[in-house]
Amino acid sequence: MAQLTTLNPASMRLVMESVPFLKQHGEKITTVFYQKLFSNHPELLNLFNQTHQKQKQQQKALAEMVMSAAMHLQNLEAIAPAITRIAHKHRSLDVKPEQYPIVGENLLAAIKEVLGEKATPEILNAWAEVYSFLADQFIRIETQLAEELLQQPGGWTGFREFVIDKKEKESDVITSFYLVPKDGKAICSFQPGQYISVKMDIPGEKITHIRQYSLSDSPSKPYYRISVKREDGNDQFPAGIVSTFLHNRIHEGDSLMISAPAGDFVLQEKENRPVVLISGGVGLTPLVSMLNTLAERRHDVPVTFIHAALNSRVHAMKDHLRNLAEQHDNIRYFVCYEQPSDEDRRLKNFDKEGYLDLDWLRSLIPSPEADFYFCGPVPFMKVVKSLLGQLGVKDTDMHYEIFGSAIPI
C-alpha cells in the first residue's frame, strides 16, 4: 500500500482515546449501524450477505476492523493487508465511490446513538475526519484494482454474463460449475487462490444476492470453475439461499452474472521453496487451483497437500487429487477423515482418522521453512494456525483465506 497522508494529530488522538469504548461497545455500534443503513438505504442490502448478518459475522468483523483502524492510526501500514483484502472484496462487489459517504453517515449516527453523551461533537468530528480519510484510501485502491483489470486482455469491471458450460457433481454436497463468457470473447487471467462474485436474482427473493466463490482450477483454462458447497442449514442457521439455488435450479446452458477475479490470498511462486497446502471441507477449492497450477508449472517445487473431511462422501475431487500425486514425483497427498465410513476403511481411502494433530503434521512436514496455505471453517483454521506455530512456522509464511466475513483467527 502506498504511503498514506498524515491525519490531523488532534483527530487521531481523540479517535485513539475512544478505543476503550469501541472494545466495550463495538459490536453494538456495528449492529445499530447496519440497522440504520438498511432502513435508510435498502438499495444497499444486496451488497451484504444477509445470512452472515443473521449470524452476526459481519457485525463482529466490522467492529474488529473499526477498532483495529483506530488503534493503528499512527501506523496504518500495520493494517495495510486488511485494507487491501477488503478493497478486493469491494471491487468484486462493484462498490461505488458515492456509497462511502452513505456508510459514513450511518456509522457516525450509530456511534452517537450507542455512546450517547460520551459522543461529544469533538469526538464525532474526529471520527468523521478519520472515516473520510480511510474511505479515500479504499476508493483509491479499488480504482487502481479496476484500472489494472481493464488493462488485462479480457478484463472487465462490474458484472458480465457467463454461461454454465458444464455442471459436475464432486461429492454429496459440492458441485462444480464451469463458466464461459456468453459473448464468446476472452476472459482475463487470475492468480491461483482468487475468487469471483456471483450475482443472482432469485424468484421469491426481494433483493439481489451476491456471493463470492473461489476459482477451483488453474488460470490456464479457457473457463472459470467454481465448486460450491450446498448449505442445507440446520436448527441454528437457515439453508444457503444462493448455494441451494445453484445446486437445485441452475443447469447447463443457464446464465450467471459474475465479476472479474479478485482477492489477495494467492499463490506466491518462489524459486524452489516448498509449498504446503492444508484444507478442510470446501476450503480445498482455492488450494486445488494452486495445486493444479503448481502441477502445470513447477515440477521442481516440493508440494504437500493435506485435506481433512468428514469422510469420502463429502470429499470433493478426491480422485483428481490422488491422480495428481501419482503422476508427479514432487507432489505428496494425505487425507484425514473425522468419521470414515466402512467403505473408506475397506478401500483405505484415508491416511489418518480423527483430527489433524501435531504429531501427524510433524511426520508429514519435514521443515517449517516453506510457504503454508490453509483454508476451511474458522475453527479448523484456528487449529491449523496453532499447530503450525508449534512446528516453528513463521507468521509471515502462513497464508490463509476466510470464507465470509473476515473475523481474525
TrEMBL record:
Gene Ontology BP, a term: cellular response to nitrosative stress
Example GO molecular function: heme binding
Residues that span the membrane, as ranges: none
Domain Globin per the UniProt entry, residue ranges: 6-143
Chain ranges of the FAD-binding FR-type domain: 157-268
HAMAP family tied to this protein: Hmp
Catalysed reactions, semicolon-separated: 2 nitric oxide + NADPH + 2 O2 = 2 nitrate + NADP(+) + H(+); 2 nitric oxide + NADH + 2 O2 = 2 nitrate + NAD(+) + H(+)
Stored InterPro entries: Cbr1-like_FAD-bd_dom, FAD-bd_FR_type, Flavoprot_Pyr_Nucl_cyt_Rdtase, FNR_nucleotide-bd, Globin, Globin-like_sf, Globin/Proto, Hmp
Described purpose of this protein according to its UniProt entry: Is involved in NO detoxification in an aerobic process, termed nitric oxide dioxygenase (NOD) reaction that utilizes O(2) and NAD(P)H to convert NO to nitrate, which protects the bacterium from various noxious nitrogen compounds. Therefore, plays a central role in the inducible response to nitrosative stress.
CDD domains in the record: flavohem_like_fad_nad_binding
Pfam families cross-referenced by the UniProt entry: FAD_binding_6, Globin, NAD_binding_1
Gene that specifies this protein: hmpA
Residues of the site described as Influences the redox potential of the prosthetic heme and FAD groups: 89, 401
Chain intervals for the UniProt region annotation (Reductase): 154-409
Essential cofactor(s): heme b; FAD
Record-stated family: In the C-terminal section; belongs to the flavoprotein pyridine nucleotide cytochrome reductase family.
Feature type site, description Involved in heme-bound ligand stabilization and O-O bond activation: 34
Main EC class the enzyme belongs to: oxidoreductase
Domain text: Consists of two distinct domains; an N-terminal heme-containing oxygen-binding domain and a C-terminal reductase domain with binding sites for FAD and NAD(P)H.
PANTHER family xref list: FLAVOHEMOPROTEIN
SUPFAM superfamilies reported in the protein's UniProt record: Ferredoxin reductase-like, C-terminal NADP-linked domain, Globin-like, Riboflavin synthase domain-like
Keywords (A to Z) from UniProt: Detoxification, FAD, Flavoprotein, Heme, Iron, Metal-binding, NAD, NADP, Oxidoreductase, Oxygen transport, Transport
Active site per database record: 100, 142
Protein name: Flavohemoprotein
